[in-house]
Each structure stands twice: as C-alpha cells, then as structure tokens.
Specification:
2 domains, mainly alpha, about 75% helix, two-stranded parallel ribbon, 9 helices
C-alpha cells in the first residue's frame, strides 16, 4: 500500500497538456496584473523613486549634471522606473503564482517549503538590490566619473544613467537567487557539494564570462559582479553540504526505525 505522505494529495486529477497550458496562461496573466498594479503605484511616486536612484550622483567629488536630451526622455525614464518598481512590488505575488502552478506535481512533504521559499527568495532579491545600490553603484559611478579631467564636464543623459542603474540593480537582484537555486537542485539530487568543489575553477571562469556578458562593456563592473558571484558560489557549496547532511541524517533515522 503506497505511503500517503509521499504521494501528491489533492483530488487533483492528471491534467491534459492543453489544460496545463491554460493554467500557465492564467498564472502569467495574474503575475502581469500584479506587475501592472505595482507599476501604477510606482508611477504615482515616480519622482521620489527617481530622486532615490539619483542620490548616488550627489555624493561624488566631481559635480555630475544629468540632462534630458530627448523630447520623450523623462517619459521613458518614468516608465522604466515604474516597470522596475512594479516588478519589485509584484515579486512575492509572482512567486506565489509560480508555486501554485508547480505545486500540484509536488509531494505533500515538499509543499511545506512554500512560505520559506517566497520569504527567502524575496529577501535575497532585496538583499541583492541593497548590495548593488549601497556598495556597487557608488563605487562604480565614482570610478567612472573620476576619470573626467581637464576641461571635460561630467554631463550624462538621464535615460542612460537610469538604464545603467536599473540594469545593475536587476542583475544583482537575480544573482542573489543562486543559493535558492542551489538548495532545490541539491534537494532533488542534481547537485552535490563534491560536484561543486570539483568544478570550482571551471565555475569561477564561467562566472566571469557571464559577468562579462550581462554587464556593461567595462572590466570594473564585470569584476564587481564576478566577486559577489564567487562568494555566493562558495556559500552555495555550504548550503548543498547542509542539504546532504540532512538527507544522510534522515536516511540513518529511517534505517534505525526499520531495524
């Protein structure tokens, strides 16, 4: 007789492929609505958010002047700020929709990870944003603007500046999800600490290649992204090790009970 604790509960019948597509479509629509609502809220407070994003430029030794060089420049900037803010505000709801889509296929024991998953993923994303805003951006902006010398004035188009800032924030927000990904891959047995240690050098090379692809074309931002990624990789090895220890402990307990 099968163990009920290891089978998906749910008077859930197996859904045909087209029903899965329909379910996915509605989950995407609901996630898009969450982003849209968050975007509206952020557009209402767009000036305050913009002031927040511009703040690092006020801490420079060299005066930096942000300019609007296109007729539609500020309109595009506020749309970008609104969409980015909508993604951040809507992230927990997006994760809920993702979880509800995949949870029918999970075991009952796996569904208890719902709250920790949403909480930790959101927290890590916000940590990535904070790390980029308070550490990476000031350093990067100060370095690049510090190269200005002589009669050259530091004037930057506002849309270029905001695009640069949002790109860095988004990249670091998603990069900080690596421990979550490692946890679940280790949980299902696709990743082990031994495997991660064995290919550590390969991973470091891959990390800096990825950093070169996703960052603006300059060495500094590639290094600034690569170093935290390496640290997160080492932390992920620790997480994978903890998952393995817990698995071995559980297996040992089950064997003792069997005896």
């Amino acid at each position: 007789m099968p163990d009920e604790s290891t089978e998906p509960k749910s008077g859930e019948r197996e859904m045909p492929f087209l029903d899965h597509l329909e379910e996915l479509r509605w989950r995407i629509i609901k996630a898009a609505i969450a982003i849209f609502v968050g975007m509206i809220v952020c557009l209402v407070f767009s000036q305050r958010i913009l002031d927040f994003l511009i703040w690092p430029t006020t801490q420079l030794d060299i005066p930096l002047e942000l300019q609007v060089l296109k007729v539609q420049g500020m309109f595009v900037v506020k749309l970008e700020v609104g969409f980015f803010g909508g993604m951040v505000l809507g992230l927990p709801f997006i994760l809920v929709q993702l979880w509800r889509f995949i949870s029918p296929g999970l075991f009952e024991t796996e569904r208890k990870f719902f709250v920790p998953l949403v909480a930790s993923s959101t927290l890590l994303f916000l940590t990535g944003l904070a790390f980029a805003y308070f550490i990476i951006l000031p350093f990067a902006i100060d370095f690049f603007i510090g190269l200005v010398s002589g009669n050259i004035k530091a004037n930057i188009a506002i849309d270029f500046y905001i695009g640069f800032v949002l790109r860095i924030l988004i990249i670091f927000g998603f990069v900080f999800q690596l421990p979550i990904l490692t946890y679940f891959l280790s949980k299902i047995g696709l990743l082990t600490p031994a495997f991660m240690r064995k290919y550590r050098r390969h991973a470091v090379i891959a990390i800096f290649v990825v950093a070169a692809v996703v960052t603006p074309p300059d060495v500094l931002t590639q290094v600034l992204l690569g170093i935290p990624l390496v640290v997160l990789y080492e932390f992920s090895i620790f997480i994978s090790k903890r998952v393995q220890i817990n698995k071995e402990r559980k297996m040992k307990t089950q064997q003792e009970k069997g005896e």
